[in-house]
Each structure stands twice: as structure tokens, then as C-alpha cells.
Design brief:
single chain; 154 residues; alpha+beta; GMP Synthetase, Chain A, domain 3; SH3 type barrels; 2 domains; five-stranded antiparallel sheet; three-stranded mixed sheet; 3 helices; 42% strand; elongated
């Protein structure tokens, strides 16, 4: 099996599931790696098994010569494809910048070149004592972001 055949086969399965590939490759060591997720919701073990079976079916008797890894990308995997950004609009994320700074907030906008994060923050009142809760936002250019991951609260 070559990369083109693998890509076509997996993409057919992903289209049936309304899913997308985060990572898809066939290494020189005969290791097939597929990380996939649904456009809406989370991919199930049964759906991952369906992709694995399709790959094994295409390989036929040669499947024993390959190692096959089919999984979801994982909770703390940085976003790498556009579908991850689109899927997670409305979710809490952490953006680590190239300069080392971090920004946390809800991913509210993704336009292909930048993301906008929003959050609520207590700030001093403009006049008088005390603090007031204010809606804050920041727009970050993708080229300035080292990694963007989901921010899970445990």
C-alpha cells in the first residue's frame, strides 16, 4: 500500500462518518498512523474500529506486515488542521505564543489567519473603589501561535 491509496481509503471512511483526519501517514517502517475526529461530537471506538477494518481489508493478507494505529488526536494534542479550529469554536483553549506568553479564553472566531479568544475579567472600576467584571478579547495571528490546545477543567 502507498500513501495515495491509504489517503483515498481513509478519506472515504471519514466522509461516511462526517469526520476529518488530523494526521494520516504511512511510515517507511510500515507503520500506518491515523488520528481522526468527527466534525461534531467525539469519535467513538466503534467508528475508529470501522476505519481500522477498512485499512485491514484493503491490505488483505499483507496486513500482518503493518502496524496500524487508529485513534482520536487526544485531549492535549495541539490543533493542526482547520477542521479542529472550526469544530472547537465556543470551547475554552490555551494559546501558547512563540514568545512564550499564554492566552486563555473561549475560541470565538477563526478566519484561517487568526483566532479571537474571549473571557471575563475583574478589573478596577474607572471611577471609585472596587472592581467590575468586563468582557475581554484578544485576536491572535496563527503565525504567532506556537500551539493552541483545548483547556480542560478538572
Amino acid at each position: 500500500m502507498d500513501n495515495a491509496t491509504l489517503t483515498t481509503l481513509v478519506q472515504e471512511q471519514l466522509d461516511q462518518l462526517d469526520a476529518f483526519a488530523v494526521e494520516l501517514n504511512l511510515g517507511s517502517d510500515m507503520h500506518i498512523k491515523v488520528h481522526a475526529d468527527l466534525n461534531e461530537g467525539r469519535i467513538s471506538v466503534a467508528q475508529l474500529r470501522q476505519i481500522t477494518r477498512a485499512i485491514k481489508g484493503e491490505l488483505g493478507d499483507d496486513f500482518e506486515d503493518y502496524s496500524i494505529e487508529v485513534s482520536s488526536p487526544g485531549m492535549f494534542t495541539p490543533f493542526v488542521v482547520e477542521a479542529q479550529y472550526k469544530k472547537n469554536i465556543g470551547q475554552s483553549v490555551v494559546a501558547t505564543m512563540l514568545d512564550g506568553n499564554e492566552h486563555k479564553g473561549k475560541l470565538t472566531v477563526y478566519d484561517g489567519e487568526s483566532v479571537t479568544l474571549t473571557w471575563r475579567e475583574r478589573v478596577p472600576k474607572p471611577v471609585g473603589k472596587g472592581k467590575v467584571t468586563t468582557d475581554m478579547s484578544v485576536t491572535l495571528t496563527l503565525t504567532d501561535i506556537k500551539q493552541l490546545i483545548l483547556d480542560f477543567k478538572f
